[in-house]
Design a protein that fits this description.
By secondary structure, the protein is mostly helical. It is about 65% helix and about 0% strand. It starts with 9 loop residues before the first helix and ends with a helix. The relative contact order is 0.09.
């Protein structure tokens, strides 16, 4: 917000005013959409493009939240309510998003990352197998330590 400056570009101002009026009409006409939590994912996507880099689980969750919003917005645009609206400014702004179906991506990732950013045990069969093997090994080590401790205490 601090970086914002007034604009004297009348064409840009007209476009922004049109978009604002279209969204206001949508909302006052009974439409609803949750814009909360949206952010520009550009920096995270740029970070993910670097060879050898990996996003943290919480960063992936943040991207998934944005993608969920995009998918919901796309569904709204393609619904009868969206198609019956006269909102050329919003349609133009939304065209790049509306062109992509994120449902397969969301389906494949939904439930795979826990709220704390860690991978869910059932994120993959291999991960589930590895974690169960680690749990068994941990129990075996604990049991061995108990037996050693019991033998030295007598």
């Amino acid at each position: 917000m601090l970086a914002l400056e007034p604009s004297a570009d009348a064409a840009w101002i007209d476009v922004q005013q049109q978009r604002t009026a279209e969204i206001r009409d949508f909302l006052t006409g009974g439409g609803s959409f949750d814009f909360h939590g949206l952010f520009d994912p550009g920096s995270l996507l740029d970070e993910a493009r670097v060879d050898g880099s990996a996003l943290e689980g919480t960063q992936i969750l943040a991207l998934l939240a944005v993608i969920e919003h995009v998918a919901a917005w796309r569904a709204l645009l393609k619904s009868d309510a969206g198609r019956n609206r006269n909102w050329p400014g919003i349609a133009t702004l939304s065209a790049p998003l509306a062109a992509h179906d994120f449902a397969p991506l969301l389906e494949s990732l939904r439930g795979k990352i826990e709220p704390d950013g860690s991978l869910a045990d059932d994120a993959s069969h291999e991960l589930r197998r590895i974690r169960r093997a680690l749990e068994r090994q941990h129990r075996t080590i604990e049991e061995s330590l108990r037996k050693i401790a019991a033998g030295t205490c007598q």
